[in-house]
Amino acid sequence: MTSTFPDISISTDRLVLRPFEEADVPALTAMMADDQITAWMTSPFPYTETEARDFVTRRAPALRTGGEGIVFAVTELLTQRLVGSVELRGTDWRVRSAEAVYATASWARGEGYASESLLALAQWLFQDQKFERVEMRTAADNTAAQQVAQKLGCISEGVLRNAWIARTRTENWGIPPHEGQRDRPVPHDLPETQGGWEDPATDRPDPQQGGWAELRTDLIVWSLLPEDLDGTFEQLEQHAW
């Protein structure tokens, strides 16, 4: 029998983590269309409402019911606006571990929403689901995501060389995506090579493919264990899961 996460919501003082709803499609589409998100994500672009609706209505629910993970829309408690998303994926139910990935809307960055939502997710995962490990992977040039991992108390475990494909505007060909600009986005279960913005014959960006080129980069592996959160459980007011 496949283990699955419950269909729940998680609250903090400022945020509600809940399942995506079809009403979120316009906000999700706008969030994923941001250039800084496109730089690190593997989803297709331009990101259309069709893509968003398929993710919200089919792929996100299937991730949970299939036992692979769970996806949450991150919304402001007071305004109910969508500020981002967090996801657990690659769940190993025997080891009790999963990888956490996330995205933050451009207008909501700098408010601490990423670390707050990830901390709430980790608390729930360790306390209620009795998990023993959360893993995060950040691109080598994504210093903003690395700062979030450090703020949570994650431990850097090493580097996976050439393990990720980032994107850069073709006018900046040869220059990695700007450091410190964004949180790592939710991959949405698409292959890393989705899009194929390089011309295989010349290894140069294809100008017909939307002005983006793909560049390989390293991934830094971070881990978070229950004991790493000692002293941080009191930082968030606990609510009923």
From TrEMBL:
<feature type="region of interest" description="Disordered">
    <location>
        <begin position="172"/>
        <end position="211"/>
    </location>
</feature>
<keyword id="KW-0808">Transferase</keyword>
<dbReference type="InterPro" id="IPR051908">
    <property type="entry name" value="Ribosomal_N-acetyltransferase"/>
</dbReference>
<dbReference type="GO" id="GO:0008999">
    <property type="term" value="F:protein-N-terminal-alanine acetyltransferase activity"/>
</dbReference>
<feature type="domain" description="N-acetyltransferase">
    <location>
        <begin position="15"/>
        <end position="171"/>
    </location>
</feature>
<protein>
    <submittedName>
        <fullName>N-acetyltransferase</fullName>
    </submittedName>
</protein>
<dbReference type="InterPro" id="IPR000182">
    <property type="entry name" value="GNAT_dom"/>
</dbReference>
<dbReference type="InterPro" id="IPR016181">
    <property type="entry name" value="Acyl_CoA_acyltransferase"/>
</dbReference>
<dbReference type="GO" id="GO:1990189">
    <property type="term" value="F:protein N-terminal-serine acetyltransferase activity"/>
</dbReference>
<dbReference type="GO" id="GO:0005737">
    <property type="term" value="C:cytoplasm"/>
</dbReference>
<dbReference type="Pfam" id="PF13302">
    <property type="entry name" value="Acetyltransf_3"/>
</dbReference>
<feature type="compositionally biased region" description="Basic and acidic residues">
    <location>
        <begin position="179"/>
        <end position="191"/>
    </location>
</feature>
